[in-house]
Specification:
The protein is an alpha+beta fold. The chain contains 8 helices and 19 strands. Strand 12 and strand 13 form a beta hairpin. The longest helix is centred in the middle third of the chain and has 13 residues.
Length: 323
Amino acid sequence: MKTAKEVGLDFVIGTDHDTIQPKLDGLEGYHNGVLLICGYEITPEINHYLAIGTDKLIPPSDNPQDYIDDVRESGGLGVIAHPHHIGIKRFGVDAFPWNDWSVNGYDAMSIWDLVNDWGENINGYVSGLQGLINPAGYISGPNPKTLHLWDELNRERLVAGIGELDNHNTHFKVFGITVEVFKWEFALKTIRNHLLIDDITGDYERDTKHIIDVIKRGRLFVANDYFEDSRGFEFFALLDGGKRAYMGERLPAGTRMNLFINSPKKAYILLFHNGNLVKEKYSTNLTYATDKSGVWRAEVHLQKGLWRRGWIYSNPITIEGNY
């Protein structure tokens, strides 16, 4: 938590594997102004699931619907973790994907996983060594399969998208040398969840419930703040009469709206409809008028050297209807 304070975080959600011991030890609460929320990760062989905001320790099961239902019934926030996890064979890391999409009742899914993003760009010992020396250079953005699936799921109902580090303070052996991946000083500067929230009180129980509710409602965007500070990003819709709609909202069919995307830095701003790119602009802002039903979301990419890298990913604003 000392490092979290030093890098400017407001809250941290810890999800150790299959244990609520940190909560039982009384660690949940504010530490020097940073809120620690103690959740946990349910870890069967595959289909890992984050349980947050529950005092109940729910065991793994061969049927993921069982623990999804248990988390929901306990009042917790349930998140599908690293859905397209591929592991890192070169370093002996197994794959832990989510493969049962017949389930329902989950609140959110991870759309950007730090360790998996890094691992997808490691294809040998040379790139592995380079990735350990310069890990930021091997972070490119969410898996396109994950984004495509997320867009499809949001056609039916809101599935909030979050970012996760999945950082286990892991150590690899490279040419006989033990190397730490990733140091917390680095990891905590990377993929972050930025919530639309303004009434934090300092009461950890109330604030924890409020943060969980905001995440469930999709009122957040995900960004890699190691590249640039993403604070100031906006994605909202201006409706007739001057009313605004925000990320996570689902509007009635036929709603006319003007979408606004504001970036804190000049960059490539992209607007997607049902997973298809409809407009792109290199600027600090983009606007678009529509009444078309479907899932609308924004991305912002940065030019870093020779490559464009994903920076900011909004949750969607959706117009209901036939699409």
